[in-house]
Amino acid sequence: MLYLALFTMHLRYPILNVLRYQTFRSVLAGLAALALSLALGPLLIQRFRAAHIGQTIRDEVPQSHQKKAGTPTMGGLLILASCFVATILLADPRDPYVWIALFVTVAFGVIGFSDDYLKLKRGRGNGLSGPQKLFWQFTCAFVASVVLFGVLKLDTHLTFPFLKRVHPNLHWWLYVPLAMVVIVGCSNAVNLTDGLDGLAIGPVMTTGFCYWIFTYVAGNLKFATYLDVPHVEGAGELAIFCAALIASSMGFLWYNAYPASMMMGDVGALSLGGALGTVALLAKQEMVLPIAGGVFVLEAVSVIMQRYYYKMTHRRIFRMAPIHHHFELGGWPETVVVTRFWIISIVCALVALSTLKLR
Questions:
Q1: Domain total for the chain?
Q2: Which of 80, 115, 79, 72 is nearest to 259 (CA)?
Q3: Is the pTM of this model over 0.85?
Q4: Using H for helix, E for strand and C for coil, what is the string for the chain?
Q5: Fewer Cβ atoms within 10 Å of its own Cβ: the N or the C terminal residue of the chain?
Q6: Residues 204, 293: Cα–Cα separation, whole Å
Q7: 18 domain-assigned
Q8: 129, pLDDT greater than 80
Q9: Does residue 4 sit within a domain?
């Protein structure tokens, strides 16, 4: 909104002409989101402590986590608020893709908030059941996917990393189920990763950085043509959203770094994962998401393997799943696990970005 209000005056004040550049507005959105998250963090922590909104710890997690009980949770509200405000102020509100990204982010945030609230009310981590969460997640993802591929007619050709000439057309009625799986799968993978102080937010930022570049390239006809990637008119505005997401996550990390003063909660994890999945679809780079978000894939696969292997053999592959608990129980300090997973995430992001040229 602020973008339109200021840009209309660029003829009178030529300096405002710089607002036409999405890169510049991305920087402004990032700075605004970072400032908001840093400023609102202490206030939110204080309010949560006063209201006794603290983390509940399940009995089955490592005993070292029990000391975290009572730490203010639902810190994802800080990320959501900062990202939403910065995006609304500096992205072009006439771009429907921006509103789709915001819709999914907020809708999944509401689902996560409901889960967090019920956990606090009922105690012992008893929030929404798995089927309930999945039902609402798939419902929101269905609405967004139908609008994208059925109404806005987003291109339904798939683009595969490292394969230049492979572009199968799924048609919108086949693309919608795929899009739903991408959004919901990414949301839950981020949620599974959120088990240590600062663990999930680092890969969120590196993956978000990848899609900041992907969305800008997809929205720029010259770059998209040069790199031979799908051009999505209007996708460049999502770079502002990605920048706000990265910066608000960075502000949250200030308070979530070990030892955490505030936990993300499902309100943050579900919404951030849903946002990344949606942006991947909008940039036509959904097949690169498993590479860029390699840490999330690793965490989710470890849970699936552990669960089904135990059902078949009554034995475990890992000491505990998700896999970050396996390394914890193996003697790695929490900070070592987080740092090494961040390093893996950075490597995954670099490999994902290399797909722009290595095809």
A1: 1
A2: 72
A3: yes
A4: CHHHHHHCCCCCCHHHHHHHCHHHHHHHHHHHHHHHHHHHHHHHHHHHHHCCCECCCCCCCCHHHHHHCCCECCCHHHHHHHHHHHHHHHCCCCCHHHHHHHHHHHHHHHHHHHHHHHHHHHCCCCCCCHHHHHHHHHHHHHHHHHHHHHHCCCCCECCCCCCCCCCCECCHHHHHHHHHHHHHHHHHHHHHHCCCCCCCHHHHHHHHHHHHHHHHHHHCHHHHHHHCCCCCCCHHHHHHHHHHHHHHHHHHHHHHCCCCCCCCHHHHHHHHHHHHHHHHHHCCCHHHHHHHCHHHHHHHHHHHHHHHHHHHHCCCCCCCCCHHHHHHHCCCCHHHHHHHHHHHHHHHHHHHHHCCCCC
A5: N
A6: 8
A7: no
A8: yes
A9: no
Q: What is the pLDDT of residues 310-332, one digit of tens each?
A: 989 989 999 998 999 999 989 99
For residue 15 the two structure tokens come to 């300096």
Whole-angstrom distance, CA of residue 261 vs CA of residue 71: 7
Q: Tell me if 57 is assigned to some domain.
A: yes
Domain holding 259, by residue range, is 25-159+168-288
Mean pLDDT, residues 139-160: 92
